[in-house]
Amino acid sequence: MMNLRQIEAFRAVIETGSVSRAAERLSISQPAVSKLIQNLEYSTRLPLFERRPGRVLPTAEAFLLFDEIERIVKSLNSLQLFVADIRTMHHASLRIGVMPALSVGFIQDVLKGYVETHPETRIVVQARSTIKIVEWLLGGNIDIGLSSHPVDHPEIIQLPLCRQAYVCIMPVGHRLASRESLGPADFDGEPFISFSPESDVSIAISRVFEEAGVKPRLQIEASMAPTMCASVARGLGIALVNPLYIGGFADVITHRPFLPLIETEVRVLLPRHRAQSLATRAFIDSAETFVASLPRGS
User: Fold this and answer.
1) 35 contacts 6 by C-beta, under 8 angstroms
2) How is the beta sheet containing 167-171 ordered, strand by strand?
3) Helix (H, G, I), strand (E, B) or coil at 67
4) Which of 30, 180, 231, 233 has the CB geometry, 3.0–4.6 Å to 23, for a possible disulfide?
5) Distance separating alpha carbons of residues 203 and 115, to the nearest angstrom
6) Burial group, residue 172, by CB count within 10 angstroms (0-12, 13-18, 19+)
């Protein structure tokens, strides 16, 4: 059976034109090269060289074998380059599912750091409900999810990313913007924009107001944070949201801390049954780096 050392000696003799120069290239003796060539001829049962005094001449069969070896070597070189590309994520793709509240601002801030270090990765972002994100993760339609809604599924891994305290958002120039922080009493009689009443955060907010004996004037109920932020920007009321939801509305609304604290946690969602790719792990690193730079409640 042919071995790599025999093939190296064979290529060296063909390319240099002599056993002596092949020996110099390989840093071995001429007899060692001759022995390797003889063993290769024995292994292949092919006459590869004609021996003449002071020289060897490749046969037609030798040139056929050399051409095939070169083809294989080029393929191996290409394979090595491809492996390097995989390692650097040159051919990588990343499919991200993100809840709508985090799809305008937050995900772009995370991706900004990611693409700076992995510019070749093809990224697809899908803004979907947490229920749909879980469904797509399990079905292999996306690689990673981001949500601040709790998930209860045995096949979904949840990695805590960051906790944020809810803030009061209001139009720029609103009278309450002069306060350093706000409490339930500041909402008494104010037009209030709320999440849908069945949501966990809406229930928590309602409990805070009830305990304080305050009843905001419910103006609008919305199922998604972007709708709430847009409504606040248009002067339709004030709202309580995770500051990470503000995103692209930062120039048209302002926010102040709210006490008592109402906190939610943004989580990375992953399918338990599928191994994480290099691109997925790099994205998680970028997300952790970004949230580490955020002040609490920012």
Assistant:
1) no
2) 239-241, 167-171, 253-257
3) helix
4) 30
5) 38
6) exposed
